[in-house]
Structure formats: structure tokens, C-alpha cells
Design brief:
Elements lengths: L3 E6 L1 H5 L3 H10 L3 E5 L6 H7 L9 H8 L5 E6 L3 H9 L12 H5 L8 E3 L3 H11 L12
Antiparallel strand pairs: 1-3, 1-4, 2-3
The chain binds adenosine-3',5'-cyclic-monophosphate.
Length: 143
């Protein structure tokens, strides 16, 4: 299993003041932060990042949401990173998310759901590369 995943603290959670709480949950769960930034996606960047959802009825809304304010992409590392991080954040819809998960605690609803998580090792690699250059990923910083 891959060791990397891409997290994004989405604009709703940034706006609601939850950056610190969410990063704390991530690091307490054993993930190492390999790269992190705060950025404001352009419409073209959001459209490209969510290209897989292009045909979905909510694509336009999703792009508007992700460009509504700054977000915080974070490249994470851990054994079994993709699955473990998805467990930590909970179901897409916070109403269906387990108690104690990031989305249960901090998401507003199914659309404004606080965080992103890669859904496969292959996408994790692509998504990390979307936000971070090789130089920005601190591979050998931690033991
Ligand atoms: P995520 O699963 O990380 O990636 C796709 C995103 O689209 C999802 O989080 C939500 O932010 C958004 N989304 C999912 N379902 C809907 C919906 N029915 N209406 C609007 N946005 C949605």
C-alpha cells in the first residue's frame, strides 16, 4: 500500500476557523506532514483538480465552493495513508460520518464537507503533484 495521500482543508473549514483542530487530528493519528501551503484556487485550477467529477450535476457548485476562499492542501505520509486518512475524515456526508471523524466534527453538510482525501494511491500521487513540486515535498526531513 502507498504511503502518501493528499488532504485539503476546504474553504468552509478554513472560514470556520478549524485549520488548527484538523491538523491536530491528522498529526495525532500518526500522519507526517511532508508539504503544506495555504492557497486560493483559480477557477481553472479547481476545474482541473475535480475533472473526474466533470459530468456530475454538482460539478459547477463544487468548483464555485472550492474557489470561494483559501484552502490548505497538505501532503501526508503514513503506512496505508489513503485508507487510514479516509477513515479519519469519515463519510462524504457528515450526517453519515462516524462519531469523532473530522467531517462529523467540522463539516457543514455533504457539499461543504470540510476536507478532501485522495481515493486511491494512483490519485494520491497525481494530487500531491498537482499542488507541490518535488522540492516542496520534504522527503528526508523526518526520521
Ligand atoms: P469529496 O468527496 O472530497 O469530492 C467531491 C466533492 O463534491 C465532495 O467532497 C463534496 O464537497 C462535493 N459534493 C459531493 N456530493 C455533492 C452534492 N450532492 N452536491 C454538491 N456537492 C457535492
Amino acid at each position: 500500500m502507498g504511503r502518501k495521500t493528499l488532504a485539503i482543508i476546504k474553504p468552509d473549514a478554513v472560514n470556520d476557523g478549524y485549520i488548527g483542530e484538523i491538523i491536530s487530528m491528522i498529526t495525532k493519528a500518526g500522519f507526517k506532514i511532508k508539504a503544506m501551503k495555504m492557497t486560493y484556487l483559480t477557477k481553472a485550477q479547481a476545474q482541473k483538480f475535480y475533472e473526474v467529477h466533470k459530468e456530475r450535476p454538482f460539478y459547477g457548485e463544487l468548483v464555485d465552493y472550492m474557489t470561494s476562499g483559501p484552502c490548505v492542501p497538505i501532503a501526508l505520509e503514513k503506512d496505508n495513508a489513503v485508507a487510514d486518512y479516509r477513515k479519519l475524515i469519515g463519510a462524504t456526508d457528515p450526517a453519515e460520518a462516524e462519531e469523532g471523524t473530522v467531517r462529523k466534527l467540522y463539516a457543514r453538510n455533504k457539499q461543504f464537507n470540510a476536507v478532501h482525501g485522495s481515493d486511491s494511491d494512483e490519485n494520491a500521487e497525481k494530487e500531491v503533484a498537482f499542488f507541490f513540486s518535488e522540492q516542496e515535498i520534504l522527503e528526508n526531513y523526518f526520521d
